[in-house]
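Re: folding output
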Amino acid sequence: MNKLIILLCIVPHLLWAKSIPAEKQSQVAVITSTINEYHPVVGQKVTINYLLAVKGYFNGATRFQLPSLSKARLAQSSQFAINGSTVIDGEKYATQLWQIDVYPEHSGLLELPALSFNVEYKGAESDNHVSQLRSENLAVFAYVPEPLKQIKKYIVSSDVQLTQRWSEPQTSYQVGDIIQRDITINASDIKSIQIPAIKFPIVEGIQINVQEPKLDDQSNRGEQTASIKQTITYVIKQAGDYQLGGEQLNWWHLEKGLQQSYFEENTIKVSGFSPLQKKRLIVISTVILLLLFSYLKYRKMPPSLNSQLKKSLKNKQWPRFIALLYQKADLHANLGLLKENQNSETVAQLFEASYQAPAKTAGKDKFSACKLKELIK
């Protein structure tokens, strides 16, 4: 019943609005649209002002629907219009200002289709009117500045602030400790959904858990601000010294150009041996063991004849010195004999006697002639 009554009230007004000539209707209700930037940067907020003016005053909700664009994002600056008044051709009009924000997402020509506003108002004679006001088509050309062409993720803003808060700091951390970090990004002239997600680098020895970001948008008298809040937890898995934080956010200031903001770094020390320290310790231990093994093996080797001669001479052990000299002379004589009789059957025995080698046991092969030649040389 109520719907029927509302329908009976609205239909006559719709018929009356359609019956008004275009010239007269344009004087009763008019719409103008203006845009603040025709050559924006990709990602920059562009504001379109739609001013609706009627003779009399508005007495109902104004309805319109934003189109869906493939190359841009549309959003209302506010859920409510800015009410006012103006004078057109000497006559007073009541006005509603609706602001639509456009955020180009691709470079090139962007066509903005016309919007249709359904308005309800009372005229000068207190008669009800329902009209549909249609705006004109608009177009802008978005571009990417040269410094941004190599940067994949950025935002266009007049002000960006990065803040963070760490859990209670400690002088030294232990394996298994958990560190919590809360970060906030505040930016002007954009929507929170446009702020790119921060990429947290992988840190060996630290498990990083990132919670879903919380988005918030505020609009106050045409000033648009956006914020993202996010919580990150670090679980310490290994000892060592770590640098946490320091992430970067690129943004474009319309007057100052490319800007880069950073989160401050936080240095933490985890007691114990880090993986790198463990590797170094293993390498050093291996080198020491090899040197010790080589030294012990060297000590077990009998000293050479020359070293024995030098030692006995230094200690003035004359009987031993003379005996070693005779031994050296015999050695040279045996070597000469070996060179002359390399193919004889007694070569192996002479070789063993010259070098004081123990006699070969039965069943072991004798030295080959080729090997003997190498050793004698």
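--- second protein (sequence, then structure) ---
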Amino acid sequence: MRSESPQPSQIIFPVALQPVEEEVGAIAVTGSESWGWIEIFVLCQVFWGVLLFLPGSQAYRMYIRAFPYVTSIVALLACARSRGAELAVPGARWIVAALLLLVCSLTHPDTWLQAGAAQVVFQLAIAAPVFWAARVWISEKRLERLLWLVFGAHFVSAAVGLLQVYYPERFLPGQFSTLALQMNPEFIHSLTYTGAGDRQIVRPPGLSDLPGGAAISGTIAALLGFAFAMRAGEKQVNRLLYMAVSIVGITVVYLTMVRSMLLMVVGSMFVLALIRARQGRVVQSGWVAACAGGLVFGSFIWAVTVGGDVIQDRFASIVDSGVYETYQDNRGFFLDYTITELPFQYPFGAGVGRWGMMSVYFHDPQAWQRPRLHAEIQPTGWLFDGGLPMWIFYPVALLVAMRYTYRIAIQRSGTLNDFATMVFIVQLLIIGLCLTGPVFNTQIGVLFWLVTAILFGRERTAAVEEWNAQIEAEEAE
């Protein structure tokens, strides 16, 4: 006897008013291994930055920056028109609630209407993959390819960042962000330091025009490279190559001097070791932890030989002061202020569009009585946008998605646990970075929902394949 059909939960446009009763048969699974739109989308999320290296590109920076988000909206609209939008992905319904709250907050008396409307569309673009990417048929081979593309694209950006340290005259972008320079003329100088041999080092931007921008690519490349290397049954040569990529990624993180990224790299690597222990692979868990420590230390030695005492002093302070004190001295007071003071000022939000890049691009010169606000960390941004209810909707969406991934990752058998582990550490990284910056106002947020959706898409595809196999077996009897 077959179980219930694994048809996805969806919103269909237009909605049929009269239900049609029909015999549910085999479900066509097409293109589950072929290249398609989702692969192009993954590459666009990183390689759009190449356009910023072209001469004169700063005049079109706003459009270039918007390009990866526009692709996400286009994919959502195309999916809604053809097959419907997926709502069964863990966390998707909470995201719908968050987006509806954002729309309702447009009626707030302090909203900047134009910037607020842009913020709604912007947030929809960031979360859109959770609705459209899960509807793509994804085989195990294709899931591996997609995760490898995320890893490979970020490795290229990190490698460019390393080359920018060694050969700045050739690999640094011709122009840095003109918007950032207008806001702070000392922007570049403040993010430049003197390395070994009196080398002047601009914190490497990677495939971006912002100093330090290579940090996120270095972090993602390091974590996914490490996860690929630690897979059971991986060839020894591939394992060594992946570890070499991890060293490059971590070294770039050191050279950007972003301590929060390093802490998340270390924490995520040891979480990977704990997952291995939870799977019952205790010996492998110890091996994973030992390799993580070796990679972090080896990368530190390499970075110090290039960056000199500045790098050593910057990261030695973590050991001297401790992780908690280091966070409190740099970002902790933003969190304290957000929790203890701001909820009383903005229990139902501060009005949409008053913070972030939308408030810069769509500034309201008439709103002098409700000035632009600044959110240094993500919880502050959520509070500004939707007040205390947003503190419920969006974090719960993230936790529900992580719980789903974790349950697959700790399975002792099956083929998805290694891939789910990779997705989980990426999710963990992004959620951790919420306490250091407004990451769900950036492309990092897109990555969170993308990897969640493709993991769900693979599980859905596997269920459909099993359903079809049952039908074929019954028809053969």
